[in-house]
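Quick question about two entries, pasted in order.
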Amino acid sequence: MKLRTYIVEDNATIRENLIGTLEELAEVEAVGIAETEDEGKEWLTSHTSQWDLAIVDLFLRQGSGLGVLAACRNRLSAQKMVVLSNYATPDVRMRCAQLGVDAVFDKSNEIEALVDYCIEHSNSTQRAAASSAATN
């Protein structure tokens, strides 16, 4: 079972490279993308059962990733929100934590850590599904 991942990133090159890397290395399936805050909020909040992980950039063509994160605060407990940004400063990390973000990764030097995070989240999602199937 692949980790259903929604990506909010307005840079097409970064987005395509990220999707390729995660699909190859981390059992991730990209279920959709958004380039703006409004697109990301609309899809994530209206398709609540169709994603396991959202990867959100903070600086978007329209709006901010912070708005996307705030809109998803009441997501299901198994759904994870992570930030992938060039601006992963201590202040940004603290603001993301206040919005309930599960992890923050720096685009310049933490892509490998993001891949590892996706692999771990995929494994825990599979374990939860297996144990749920065993108890039903």
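Here is the second entry:
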Amino acid sequence: MLTHFISALVAFLSSGVLGWIMPLISLLSQGSRSPAVRAEAVQALNFQILWSVLTIVGWVLTCVLVGWLVILVTWLIAWIVPLIAGIKATSGQPFRYPMNVSIIK
């Protein structure tokens, strides 16, 4: 009985460190012997799977949203800075592009 209790405890406490691996090991090793361990391991496993999926979705959304934001900002800069340069050129003022790299010399 003590090993069942320890197995259930391991399923809960180690899940924060090892994700869904330890609850799965606990479920596979002790789940068939004890309904209580199985119930606790299933709870921990379901929780870890859910939050792993949500973490992955969060990372993907962050990459996509930040990616679109970078594209939008670069597109705006690529249109606004030459517009400012054109306005300066029509008034006879020289313009130096900010954040420029001398690729062609």
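Reply: The mean pLDDT is 82. The chain has four helices and no strands. Hope that helps.
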